[in-house]
Design brief:
alpha/beta; Beta-Lactamase; 5 domains; 7-stranded mixed beta sheet; 27 helices; 36 strands; 20% strand; histidine kinase; nucleotide-binding; two-component regulatory system
């Protein structure tokens, strides 16, 4: 199959890419423009910070000479007493300021309460408190009331009082009571001079007012509010110049001071087509927004001229400093004034704020930012977005990046220049963000599209190669061996999927040296052969080595596996050359099971050979020992009781008997003895031995060894030879005692064990029912290299404290194997050894145990469903419960149990916990209680009680029975669960 790569229509691709970029850019820009125009809180916050930056770098107007602050500072308070001063002293301060020729004197304070220091006031309060009248007849009437003194001063000068509007609904103070001074307004809709018809709207509406005493308000011609509120981020940027109250407009303190200074009793309001207002006072135009907010440029409190009130009272200030100026009287003393966080200077006092407003107005440093500017910013952002889209389409990444940076810089510089020259405050936020986002996202889309095109071209060009690679991958996946490849330094660069059988994260092995996977004892063996450089016949083939690849077996134990490795070097060219060596490739084959089978076969052959040898030796010894054992009996019968020869002949007899016992061990080892298969209880065998003279004699040799027994009372029966099993138990106990020369505890246990799955322990133990005998000591333990040899005849590393044949462990092995049993050995040097015999259990009962143990208590006719994956276990449990009268049904998996319960009911479910290959007991019960909530069940398992068993009981299941169970156990459990709840 051929592909015409050059025939691809690149022109159509370019048009499609351009269209995609433009449409994406347009949609993206419109989305952000819509969000920007809605102005959510976080966008408003960022936008304010952007305009703060523009204003911070604007050209500052020079300070005007028309403004002066009179500060009641710490110095003044220290000299003339703490605030509030008596009104006569405030009157003196104001008189001295007025005498200097100031045209407007504004008080940044509210005189809302009568002066308590006035004689008229303290006479009344003191008389009522002390209970007598104070004679004030000698005090001149002119100074009897300080408030009158101050009011008289206010009536004779160009004073402006301050007050504060309240916006809470609970405020009910009216303007009439306060003597406020509403504005006289000449309003025009536009600069053409045409007066408007409709009232202006959008101003803040106050509900009440905190004002001066009427005595003071009526004495002045002008007054203004002091209100100023920061934005939501705590920064003060704009201050209202007009507020509506009782359907009339009132000026701020700054605006009222300006009107006093200009001797103007009215203002003009022009509503511009751009959406903002202009307030005109005495020829000065002040741009504000629709709520009459003026944006303030803060130049720093240090630029505002000020004098101390204390210096004025002491007469140390020249009158020329006040002539024809606006004087703002307030306090910067600690605790007497409110402060504001601003964008220009960190903190402004209330007095400095109104002074800065007047400074902006007088210096004609106005700021214009109506809401309509948002539309202009959105329009500019859209234009720049379209331009950057076209740039990305036509140019490369670096060129378009330079264009984007230029556009962003141009927006910031342009908005700064516009503000410096015209006072129009545009935000560069939206245009800059649109440029950045469009460049970033559209460049990614462009490169992604280009990669898609390149990928398509590559796919067309390499189609046949892909097909070959796919076939090769299929072959590699089907190969069970691990195919690997190394670089020139011996680091792994490739592993076939079959590695996942050994490790959960194969990718973690990539880049690691191959030697990290080699068992420490085999490092020297594989040092020069794993990262093979040779090829051909000299390469590595069939290298047996142990690798640290977890080989999961049995009860999830992890052991080092045996592997066969074949490897050869790979070169750039066909002829090997050191300069062209690029790495190694090869195959790793798992031979762990093969090695185990070989070891088992070797062990079986060894034991067979030894058995044949033992059989021959035993045959010959039996012939020799016949006379040695028989004739001493005859001689003893013929000799008199007092014969001195009887003792010597008895010694010969005992030696012959001991030799006969060794021969019996040899016959057992050779499996040539008579195989007895009687029904016995291993507990009886254990009890008979530990009460026998042989055990008493053994205890005398090991007085410091203490035997502890734990024999299961419900132990199942086995089939075997009582004599052989007694001999095996004796040998196990004697060997354990010999391993504890310093004494200690020797624990002998018997119990039932049911295996749902096979266990790979010392030897592989298949699933089934077993009677286990365990002997655990606290002895010296067995070294790892000796563990595999302990059952070989005459193999021992112990010093024999008593005479022995050296066949004890071998006899144990042979006895267990005679009765199809298994053995497990666990040992740690310095800790001890534990040997467990697994003997197949039988459910046959001995005649001595044929009595019924209260079966009538466990009878029933209820419907019982047995769930177990072992057919033998289903048969056993079914027969037991049927014998007790129950109506029994069986299923062999969790899936079948769920299907059965969909159409049937059961009074009780006997549920196996572990069922490999399908749903286990937990999942099966969860599914069943979805169909039949509250379904009764008991749990069975060959393993000990686990967390999953307890979790299953929390779901509602009943008691737990460990396999193998007896008729009594399962009968009690079934009846108890049926009778519960």
């Amino acid at each position: 199959m051929a592909y015409n790569i050059k025939g691809y229509d690149s022109n159509n691709r370019s048009i499609g890419l351009s269209r995609t970029i433009l449409i994406t850019g347009l949609v993206l820009s419109l989305f952000f423009i819509a969000a920007y125009l809605i102005q959510p809180r976080f966008i408003r916050f960022i936008n304010n910070r952007s305009t703060d930056t523009i204003m911070a770098f604007s050209k500052k107007a020079s300070a005007s000479d028309a403004l002066l602050i009179v500060d009641i500072d710490e110095k003044s308070l220290k000299k003339y007493g703490q605030w509030p001063w008596p009104r006569y002293r405030l009157s003196q301060l104001l008189q001295k300021i007025a005498e200097t020729g100031a045209l407007s004197i504004a008080l940044d304070m509210i005189l809302a309460e009568p002066d308590g220091t006035s004689p008229i006031n303290w006479q009344s309060s003191t008389g009522s408190e002390l209970g007598y009248q104070i004679n004030t007849s000698k005090i001149p009437a002119g100074i009897f009331n300080y408030d009158r003194i101050l009011a008289d001063t206010l009536s004779k000068g160009p004073y402006v009082l301050g007050y504060e509007f309240l916006f809470k609904n609970s405020a009910n103070t009216t303007g009439t009571e306060c003597g406020l001074h509403p504005l006289k307004i000449v309003r025009m809709n536009s600069p053409d001079g045409k007066e408007g018809e409709k009232p202006l709207t959008g101003f803040f509406n106050a509900n009440g007012v905190a004002c001066n005493l009427g005595l003071f308000s009526n004495a002045v011609k002008y007054s203004g509010f002091l209100n100023a509120t920061p934005d939501s981020d705590g920064i003060l940027r704009r201050v209202p110049l007009l507020i509506r109250f009782e359907n009339r407009l009132f000026p701020s303190l700054a605006l009222a001071s300006l009107m006093q200074w200009k001797n103007s009793d009215r203002i003009n309001i022009i509503q511009n087509k751009g959406g903002f207002l202009n307030i005109i006072v005495g020829g000065i135009s002040i741009p504000v927004d629709r709520q009459a907010n003026m944006i303030v440029i803060f130049s720093g409190t240090g630029s505002l001229p000020r004098v101390s009130a204390g210096d004025i009272l002491s007469g140390t200030v020249l009158p020329e400093k006040f002539k024809d100026k606006i004087v703002l009287v307030g306090s910067s003393a600690s605790g007497l004034d409110q402060t504001y966080q601003t964008h220009g200077s960190p903190v402004y006092s209330h007095m400095d704020l109104h002074a800065q407003i007047l400074e902006n107005i007088i210096a004609r440093q106005s700021v214009v930012r109506p809401r309509e500017f948002l539309l202009w910013e959105a329009f500019l952002g859209l234009i720049l977005a379209v331009l950057i889209c076209l740039t990305i389409v036509r140019m490369g990444i670096l060129t378009s990046a330079a264009a984007a940076c230029a556009a962003i810089a141009g927006v910031w510089i342009g908005t700064g220049l516009i503000f410096r020259e015209y006072g129009c405050l545009f935000s560069p936020l939206l245009p800059a963000v649109l440029v950045i986002l469009n460049y970033a996202i559209l460049t990614i889309i462009k490169e992604w599209k280009k990669q898609q095109f390149a990928r398509k071209m590559t796919e067309n060009a390499l189609y046949l190669l892909k097909s070959s690679e796919k076939e090769l991958n299929s072959i590699i996946k089907a190969v069970p061996d691990i195919i690997f490849r190394l670089d020139s330094e011996g680091k792994i660069t490739f592993l076939s999927p079959s590695i996942s059988r050994y490790v959960n994260s194969p990718e973690k092995l990539i880049g690691q040296p191959i030697f990290n996977l080699v068992a420490p004892n085999d490092l020297n063996k594989g040092k020069y052969r794993l990262n093979e450089k040779r090829t051909g016949k000299r390469a590595t083939y069939g290298l047996e080595i142990r690798l640290l690849l977890p080989h999961k077996e049995g009860m999830n134990n992890e052991v080092i596996g045996y592997f066969s490795v074949s490897a050869e070097g790979i070169y750039q060219n066909a002829t090997p050359c050191a300069a062209e060596f690029i790495g190694t490739q090869g195959i790793i084959r798992d031979i762990t099971e093969q090695k185990k089978l070989e070891e088992r076969l070797l062990h079986a052959k060894k034991m067979e050979t030894i058995g044949n040898l033992a059989a021959g030796v035993a045959h010959d010894l039996n012939n020799i020992l016949a006379g040695l054992v028989t004739y001493p009996d005859l001689l003893l019968l013929e000799l008199p009781e007092d014969s001195p020869m009887r003792h010597k002949i008895a010694i010969i007899q005992k030696s012959g008997q001991r030799a006969a016992a060794i021969v019996q061990d040899l016959l057992t080892l050779a499996r040539r003895g008579v195989k007895v298969s009687e029904l016995i209880s291993i507990n009886d065998v254990i009890f008979e031995y530990i009460t026998s003279p042989e055990y008493s004699a053994a205890k005398q040799f090991h007085p410091d060894v203490i035997l502890e027994t734990d024999l299961a009372p419900d132990l199942m029966n086995i089939k075997g030879s009582r004599i052989h099993l007694s001999k095996a138990i004796m040998n196990m106990l004697n060997n354990a005692a010999e391993a504890m020369p310093a004494g200690g505890y020797l624990r002998l246990s018997s119990y039932n064990r049911y295996l749902d799955t096979s266990l790979d322990l010392y030897e592989k133990i298949p699933a089934g029912e077993y009677v286990c005998v365990s002997v655990a000591d606290e002895g010296v333990g067995i070294a790892g290299e000796d563990l595999e040899k302990i059952f070989e005849p005459f193999y021992s590393k112990k010093t024999m404290r008593r005479s022995g044949s050296g066949l004890g462990m071998t006899v144990i092995w042979a006895t267990i194997k005679d009765y199809d049993g298994y053995i497990d050995v666990q040992s740690t040097e310095g800790v001890g050894t534990k040997i467990v015999m697994y003997l197949p259990a039988t459910r046959e009962s001995r005649e001595t145990d044929s009595r019924r143990i209260g079966l009538e208590e466990y009878l029933g006719t209820d419907r019982v469903l047995i769930v177990d994956d072992m057919p033998e276990q289903l048969h056993i449990a079914s027969n037991m419960l049927a014998k007790l009268g129950y109506n029994v049904n069986t299923v062999k998996s969790g899936e079948e149990a769920v299907e059965y319960m969909k159409t049937n009911k059961a009074d009780l479910i006997v549920l196996d916990m572990i069922m490999p290959g399908g749903m286990d007991g937990m999942e099966t019960y969860k599914r069943i209680i979805e169909i039949h909530p509250g379904q009764k069940a008991i749990i069975t398992s060959g393993f000990s009680e686990s967390d999953r068993v307890r979790a299953l009981q929390e779901l509602g299941a009943g008691s737990y029975i460990q396999k193998p169970y007896t008729l009594e156990k399962i009968g009690v459990a079934v009846r108890k669960e049926l009778d519960s709840r």
